[in-house]
Design a protein that fits this description.
Helices cover 11% and strands 30% of the residues. By secondary structure, the protein is mainly beta. It contains 1 helix and 8 strands; from the N terminus they run ββαββββββ. The chain has a single domain, classed as Beta-clip-like, CATH 2.170.270. It has a 3-stranded antiparallel sheet, with no helix packed on it. The chain binds zinc ion.
Amino acid sequence: MVIEYVGQNIRQVVADMREKRYAQEGIGSSYLFRVDHDTIIDATKCGNLARFINHCCTPNCYAKVITIEAQKKIVIYSKQPIGVNEEITYDYKFPIEDTKIPCLCRTESCRGTLN
Ligand SMILES: [Zn+2]
């Protein structure tokens, strides 16, 4: 385990409203992480260092939803040994959408977009 992705647990309706509000406020990056069909963790204004981990098409970590005492949590695990000063990354696994978000990971196997 590397770190838990911490934030406020919110429902889809609230996530939709916040996403629009954040865009209006000029908050460029969204830190909304889907746990399951009904629940999203919002780390935009209340989170930890996990929200700053970048996407990579060839990551050294992965995100997994685990359940502890009936509460779902997102935890970042390492896939391999990670060296000192090596950037921690994971695949965001965004759903495919028409409006593409370019990927900046610059790895040989980069897919070109996050979604
Ligand atoms: Zn990439």
